[in-house]
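Hi F.,

I've been meaning to write this up properly since the lab meeting, where we talked about keeping a consistent format for the predictions we share between groups. The idea is simple: the sequence comes first, exactly as it goes in, then the structure tokens exactly as they come out, then a line or two of notes. No screenshots and no reformatting. I'm using this chain as the first example so we have something concrete to point to.
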Amino acid sequence: MTESAYRRVLLVAEAADKKKALDITVLHVREHTIVCDYFVICHGRSLTHVDSIAEGVEEYLEERDMHPLRRSQPTDAKWIVLDYGDVVAHIFTVEARGYYDLEGLWAHAETVDLSGLLAEAPVDDAE
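Output, unedited:
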């Protein structure tokens, strides 16, 4: 794991947390794909919340001179992807996250422990 990639993971997760993203999960996928080193996966309560999380991540990283290589441009924003090269952020609605189930698809990848690094908030299972 490169130090810069891990730092970017923490910044993406922290930015999503500041925007009240739910169930932030980081998967270390480097051993399983050449696409990137990490996935940061989270969801929002609504389409507006998903967009707000994505904008918050972009702004937070841009303040640190880190810009996405690509950003998905969906028409309905149920799933926004921010590609930072070694780190790819997936920001879903709760329904889209359940449908695409990236955590299940990449279940063989190591989950990065974020406990103690983000605000301690309960995972919202009511959605």
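Notes:
The mean pLDDT is 89.
Strands lie at 22-28, 38-44, 70-71, 79-83, 87-93, 110-112.

If this format works for you, I'll send the rest the same way.

G.
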